[in-house]
Design brief:
Blueprint lengths: L1 H22 L1 H10 L5 H18 L3 H18 L1
Helix pairs in contact: 1-2, 1-3, 3-4
């Protein structure tokens, strides 16, 4: 139960952040400031699809594993 709540929270966080990164003027300027202005669209799509993959993965476990791994890789590169 606790893991499922954490998964929902993580998935929704990635989905919302991905949408904000794509449409928000503030996020556009933040990506420019961070030096990722040219990659903003692809990163937004990765965040959104990763969050969606976490939700779909509740029904299809291999998708959960793959989405989790790819989001982990993306976050490791970010630091």
């Amino acid at each position: 139960m606790e893991n499922t709540l954490a998964l929902y929270f993580s998935a929704l966080s990635f989905i919302v952040y991905g949408i904000n990164s794509f449409f928000s003027k503030r996020m556009v300027s933040e990506y420019e400031r961070w030096g990722f202005g040219g990659q903003r669209i692809i990163l937004s799509l990765c965040q959104f699809s990763g969050g969606l993959g976490l939700l779909v993965g509740l029904a299809i476990p291999p998708i959960l594993t793959t989405s989790s791994f790819l989001l982990m890789c993306m976050m490791l590169v970010a630091i």
